[in-house]
Structures are given as C-alpha cells and as structure tokens.
Amino acid sequence: MKVLLRLLDKVRPTFEDGGRLHLLHPAFEAIEHFLFSPSQTTITAPHVRDPLDLKRFMSMAIISLVPCILAGLYFYGLRFIAIIVVSYAAGLTVELIFAIARKEGINEGFFVTGILFPLIMPPAVPLWMVALGVAFGVFIGKEIFGGTGRNLFNPALVGRCFLALAYPAQMSGSWLAPATELGGRVLKYVDGSNLDAVTTATPLALAKQGEFVSTAHMFVGNVAGSIGETSAIAILAGGIFLLMTRVGSWRTVVSTLASFAVLAAILRHAQPDRFGPVLWHLCAGGLLFGAFFMTTDPVTGPVTNTGKWLYGAVIGATTVLIRNFTGYVEGVTFAILLGNIVAPILDEAVFAVRLRRLRSEG
C-alpha cells in the first residue's frame, strides 16, 4: 500500500489546479479516499469525526449484499456481471459530471447505489435500459437535490420506477428462469439476445392468475424475479449481518415486515380464496430485499426511533395494498418511495410532540 500511496503522491500535481488533468480531480480524489483515509482535518466544530464513517457504512452495506450478489452470479452468470459493469459506468459518469461542475469530490456512496441497482433489475433487461435507468436515478433522485446526503429519494428506486413506468413491456417481459448451475445456457445471454426461449413469469404475476409457486422455491431462489430479490435465504443472511453491524436500523425492518404481515393476515383471514398465505407473500417479490437494504437507507429515512417505526409501518401496509388492490403485481418500489416522501413529515411530527411534552413539563 505504501508503493500505491507514493504513486498517488507522484501523480497528484497532474490532477490539481494548473495540472493537465485538473478537471478530473474529483475522480482522482474519489479513488484516493476510497483506498486511504482522507488527511484533511476539520476547521470548525464538531471536531470529533471518524474519517472512516462513510467508508464503514459503504463497506458494510456492500459486504451485506455479497450473498445476494453470489446468488445472482449463480443463477444468471455473465449476464449479471454485464449489468453491474454498465450500472457503474453510467452512474459514475453522471456523478463525475456533477462533481466537475460543482468542483467537489465524488462521494463514495455511489458504490452502494451502483450495486443495488443491478440487484433490483430483471435479468434480461436490455443493457441500454440499465444505463438509462441508473443515470436517471442518480440525476433525478440525488444530484438535483444537491448530491449525497441531500437527496429525498433512494436513487436506485427512482431509476427502477422510471423504467417501470416508461418501458413497462420491456420490464415486465424481462424475467428469466434461473439457471441451476453457474454457466450453462445463461452465459449465452450476455448481450440479451435470444431470451424469449427462457423467459417466464414471476411468482407474484402467477399469483394474480391464481397459481402460487412453492414457498420453498422462493426461499432458495429457484424462481423468476429481479436478480437479487429471488433468494430469501441470501437476503436474510446479508440483512441480518447489516443489522448486526448497526448500519441498518432493525426498527425499520421489523416495522416494515410486521405491518405487512399483520395486514396480509387480516386479508387472508377475510378472503382465503383470494389472498395468499402470509409467509408466501413475505418471500415473494422484493419485500425482503426492500425491507433490509432499501428502507434502511440513513439518508432517505427518518432519524428518530419513533419515526422509523412509523416509516416501516407505512411501507409495509402500502405494499400489501398495492399488491392486492391495484394492477401492479409488486408494490415495494412505490411503497418505499412514498415512505421517502413522508419520512421528513414523520420526524417533524415526532419532534413537535416531544417539544410540546417538554414545554408542558416545564
């Protein structure tokens, strides 16, 4: 690492003001900060800051996604790798353009968004749509609000929502039956060609027709769906790790799943012939993935503990309603984006109640 540090010190003048590549200074700074702790110190209070805080959050989030990433590689092979490469290339390009325009560094937070977006994509989605979706998500979902830490919405979900609304036919027809072994037929489909022969319906789409896929198959991941959302066991392994590291809020996760389960159980009890079992719905679609890896985003969610409980309740209940009473087979994306909207309101309400209580006690 010392050799790499000396190399960076040697080329640094080229990227600083007056250097030939000064316009690319944000990219150089992002690489340097990704590899090493920043050497800057704070001028004003608060002075107690951990320079590894952002890296720790980013690293723990990516590590928690490893089981889902491995499952995606197992089921979809090189097709998944191609989607990841396009996601990072397109998203980092948008980040770099804004960093240069604002004369700021590239925030390392995109490394999480860049891998989250491929995991919520259908495996057979055209690569140009991947590039368009992640670019739209970063631009509209984050950069127009001022960049990382100022965004109201989760950028990855904004990109997916855009693609679902703008290209519904391609998004709903891009599901692949997962391969049972790494390689095989999936490796032929890196470019997205000849996919009609292996496309299939998702469990939630089949449920709309009255056909319920085995819960055991959904638990393992041997069903069609978004790349990182089909294997419940992989999601639980990574999600529990995320909660154990305290990077994700357990309150939000528990509230989301509990509110979903309670409302789904009520509907199941009222009309068992129409609504599916609770456990089945918990494993189907992107609920588990969204609960563990999307609702726990510290930027777009509430900061108060009470707000987190309410936030999860809104998302879980809304997901049930969208799934069962609208034309959409999946409701997690829209539910979380709705939660992003009300998150500041929930915190404001919690603060107002606390202030009123303190004043009455005083």
Please give the structural blueprint.
Elements: H1 2-15, H2 25-35, H3 53-64, H4 66-76, H5 78-102, H6 110-119, H7 127-141, H8 155-166, H9 168-172, H10 203-208, H11 215-220, H12 232-244, H13 250-270, H14 278-283, H15 287-294, H16 305-325, H17 332-361
Helix pairs in contact: 3-12, 4-12, 5-6, 5-7, 6-8, 7-8, 8-17, 12-15, 13-15, 13-16, 16-17
Supply the number of helical segments: 17
Classify the secondary structure makeup into a structural class.
mainly alpha
**Beta-strand percentage?**
under 5%
Oligomer: single chain
The tally of structural domains comes to 1
Choose one word for the global shape.
Answer: globular
Overall pLDDT level: 82
For the biggest sheet, the summary is: none
Stretches where pLDDT is under 50 for at least 5 consecutive residues are: 42-52, 182-188, 192-197
Ends apart, CA distance between termini: 57 Å
What's the total count of β strands? 0
Q: Tell me the helix content.
A: 55-70%
Helix-strand string: HHHHHHHHHHHHHHHHH
- Rg, nearest Å: 22 Å
Overview of this structure, please?
The protein has 362 residues and is mostly helical. The protein has one domain. Helices cover 62% and strands 0% of the residues. It has 17 helices and no strands. Helix 3 (53-64) packs antiparallel against helix 12, helix 7 (127-141) packs across helix 8 and helix 12 runs parallel beside helix 15. The radius of gyration is 22 Å and the shape is globular.
